Every structure is written in structure tokens, then in C-alpha cells.
Fold this protein.
Amino acid sequence: MKLFYRKYGDGPPLVILHGLYGSSDNWVTIAKNISNRYTVYLPDQRNHGNSPHDERHDYESMSDDLFELAADIGLKKFFLAGHSMGGKAAMMFSSRWPDMLAGMLIADISPFTDDKRRAAARYENLKILKTILGIDLLKASSRSDVETALQLHIQDEKVRELIMKSLRRNDSNNFEWKLNAKALLNNLDKIVDGISLHTADNQQITGFPVIFLKGENSDYIKDGELTDITRIFKAAELKTIKNAGHWLQADNPQAVTEELLDLIG
């Protein structure tokens, strides 16, 4: 799949993958802040932003998309970062093509999950996607009409802001979603589940630095989980971003920027 992407800066290449409901423009400010050190590529992942829609939405297909993007751009070795869903896609890519990576940063997501986390994530995202699909956009006369409808069921302001960025008018001047909520709903179990990395039993992914970032106020990475993470990523470090929840790039962009710069050394 040919992904839409934005490009900033000059230097060693860095690809940043956004999370669920997001798009490339979520990372534009940070990309510009590090553009004197990196050439930053910000793709819209499948079923998000300006990239194509497809019935399939899983981490293998997203890693395939990234491989195709790297080939089209001519990236033979690059730094890779990803937040949440984008972090899982990045980890899947690293397990399939580790020799292509110079370093990796995973923002507030673990490769693992458990029944409690899976059930909570499924419940919350099921509510969000059903809310999106339940809005009759043909009856909406303004963006505020849509935002009011979202507020009825989605309390998280940051999630609503992400979703609203996917609202646009079409050629008929009617509202439509850039987000493919139907495909995301149909693949929700795959999105919220842990990922099965393409490694042989007891084989570690090595050869490049790996930084995991945990939001101080987030429970997406559990205390003590680094031990299990280092069984897969031998060089992994876990760092906490102060005064941040799951959306740590929005809550504390300066700290996230510093960690991205630390990745390049």
C-alpha cells in the first residue's frame, strides 16, 4: 500500500508512526523541532489520514506498508519511532527486518497484554468506533455538530481532538471521515491484542538501541515489564516521561523530543 507521508529536515532518516485515530500531523511540531538532526518522515498509516483504506488492518500489514514506503523512498537503514498502535507496528517491523534499523523508540506501548488490559482497551475503543459510525454526517451542518455528538460518549478530550482532525468536507460539501472506522472496528481484536513477533524461540532482536517511553500517568506499560521486554529486545531501556499520560507526545513534547535526539546519539 502506498502511504501518504510528510517530510521534514535533513540528516539521518527517522520514520515516526502515529497511533490509533491519529495521523501524520500529530507529530509535525516534534518533527520540525528535530529537523536539524534528522530527516523525518511522517506517514499516515492505512485507514488513517490521507492514506488508502483497506479491509485488512493488523500489524503484519502495517509493517508491510512501512517496508514498501522505505523501499519507495530509498531508505536502506533508518531510525524508527512509534506511538501506541504505531509502536506495535514498529516492533513488528523490527522483528522482520532488524537489519534495516539504526535505532528504535517505542512510545507508551508494550508488545504484551493481559486479559484485563485487553478487555479494557476493547471496551473503550468499541465505544469510540461505534460512536463514530453512529453519527449521521449528512445531517451535520457544522463541525460543532459532530463534536457535540462525540462528546455524548467520548469523554477523553485528546481522543476527540484526534478524531475531529479526521473530519473533512467532500466534493459535495458534505462531511466525511478520513478515518476508516468500519475497518478498524472489524479488526479491533487484532489492534488491541499483544503482538506475535517474527522471531524464533528465545531469539533476541539486537543490533540497534531501543528506547521504551512510559507516560508517568499511564498504565500501558506495567511496572516490572522491562524484564520481559529485554528478553526480546536485549538493548531496551525504559524511561518515564514526567507529567504525561498515554498521549505523552502531546503532554510533554519537550521530553519526547529530547529522547528522540538521544536515540541518534
User: Anything to note?
Assistant: The chain has a mean pLDDT of 95. The longest helix spans residues 115-134. The CA atoms of residues 166 and 178 lie 5 Å apart. The chain has two domains: 5-112+195-264, 116-189.
